[in-house]
Design a protein that fits this description.
Length: about 475
């Protein structure tokens, strides 16, 4: 994603709480390590939902939090297909990644929404993310050129996290999710805050690929499509209850990192068009991400909410999403990742496919593959590493210095917040190589005072992805 800066809910949440009243960004969406980490919309008329019957409400005042593109009220902010639904449910809207997005809802505080996701289920609107389709005989080779993923070996309807890389330096352009839909078709999701940069990147890289003799690649952006994330331990039961063809799919057999086209039973009694449903998410909980054509986004969302009831499913906003993702140890682009950071430095070496470690051939491979080997063994290693920290006292915010026992600066915090689940202050940052081992005692400078901190393994809260016999 010049990349637009994403909202910092480390500091932003506090500002929103004061001004918007308890109000408090993926793309490191969780997908399996070891893998590379739609039909047209129906035109038949639908029965109107409460949201569709809602009269358009006046725009809410912008909340002065740190934002990707502006801290004012830009008139060019876009709206997701669920904008009116958010207002109908008491959503507190803020600018985020070029969109009006809900930071929380009037029914729950950010902390309560966080806990509800862990104990029940929440539905997040992530339609601001950019959804792409790459297809054609050259699509695999193109994606292997711009990412370190093992695309050729990726099975159909398997997904994984990867990174778009800059040539030569191997810096991360953006993090992304890649799903193979067929031998020559891929579904790719990138961050909203990086839209301008990513689209220019894809245009330039496709042109270079073609000029160098690459086979044909067709690229389509799914403009206006909805994308919702159903997250939490009740997610499977909730989605199962609205399957239009339950005999066609047993969700218990759809594992973490897998996807399938599924029809949902709408409130009108009709079935939706086939929706791409992927098992995964950005919270560390079991869950699903559902890609929806523009004309069906509201109907599908209403079907999920009303069939589940508010006792089991609630809408959740960016505030809870940020604290959940941090507990899950996931990166936020523009904070924990940027153009100057490589996958090795950012503790994402696992996105580099095993075969790619020997064959190379991806942007920045000469730099990245040498970083995999420590200097002591003939490689270059890295000078800094991304780590997790438990911090005593006041929570450490982005930009806070990490210092050693002598008070010398050895790193910086990139994300941090109080953990609702652990009742402790957690943080993520980059630290000088050699200080990155779990259990290392350090200090973080918070408001001019040194606070005790200890390096800890991530995720901070154990993940509960469904991988078969037991969540893992």
């Amino acid at each position: 994603m010049k990349c637009l800066r994403a909202v910092s809910y480390v500091n932003g949440a506090l500002t929103v709480n004061r001004i918007a009243g308890r109000a408090s960004s993926q793309l490191s969406t969780a997908l399996p390590r070891g893998t590379i980490a739609s039909s047209s919309a129906l035109s038949a008329p639908r029965t109107q939902t409460p949201t569709q019957q809602l009269r358009r409400l006046p725009s809410k005042l912008c909340v002065p939090i740190r934002h990707a593109s502006s801290t004012s009220c830009p008139s060019d902010l876009q709206k997701t297909p669920l904008y009116d639904l958010h207002l109908a449910h008491g959503g507190k809207m803020v600018p985020f990644g070029g969109f009006h997005m809900p930071v929380q809802y009037s029914s729950l505080s950010v902390s309560a929404s966080h806990h509800f996701t862990r104990s029940h289920a929440s539905l997040f609107d992530v339609s601001h993310m950019v959804q792409h389709r790459f297809s054609g005989p050259g699509s695999s080779a193109f994606l292997e050129r711009i990412t370190p993923a093992s695309i050729v070996g990726l099975e159909t309807h398997r997904s994984g996290l990867s990174t778009l890389l800059w040539p030569v330096t191997g810096g991360i352009v953006d993090d992304t999710i890649i799903t193979r839909l067929s031998p020559e078709s891929f579904y790719v999701v990138t961050n909203a805050a990086c839209r301008e940069k990513d689209l220019k990147y894809f245009e330039e890289q496709l042109a270079e690929f073609k000029n160098e003799g690459g086979e044909k690649v067709e690229w389509k952006i799914l403009e206006g499509w909805g994308l919702v994330a159903l997250q939490g331990p009740l997610s499977e039961d909730i989605l199962s209850s609205v399957l239009a063809e339950p005999e066609e799919i047993e969700l218990r057999e759809l594992y973490f990192g897998q996807s399938k086209f599924i029809k949902v039973k709408l409130l009108s009694g009709e079935a939706s068009s086939p929706l791409l449903v992927s098992r995964g998410g950005y919270t560390g909980e079991d869950g699903f991400e559902i890609s929806i054509p523009p004309t069906e986004a509201v109907a599908v969302t209403e079907a999920l909410l009303q069939s589940a009831t508010k006792e089991r499913l609630q809408l959740a906003g960016l505030g809870a999403r940020d604290s959940l993702r941090l507990e899950a140890g996931m990166c936020l682009y523009g904070h924990d990742l940027d153009d100057t950071t490589t996958p090795v430095e950012s503790a994402l070496s696992w996105v580099i496919g095993k075969d790619r470690r020997t064959s190379g051939g991806f942007h920045g491979s000469e730099v990245i593959l040498r970083q995999l080997t420590p200097k002591s063994k003939g490689g270059t290693g890295v000078e800094r590493r991304r780590i997790g920290l438990i911090v005593e006292g006041a929570p450490a915010r982005e930009g806070a210095d990490i210092v050693d026992e002598k008070g010398e600066k050895i790193g910086s915090i990139t994300s941090g917040c109080p953990s609702p689940t652990l009742g402790k202050n957690i943080a993520m940052g980059y630290i000088k190589d050699g200080f990155h081992k779990a259990g290392t005692n350090l200090h973080v400078v918070v408001r001019g005072k040194k606070r005790k901190a200890q390096v800890t393994k991530m995720p901070f809260v154990p993940s509960k992805y469904w991988k078969g016999d037991a969540p893992a």
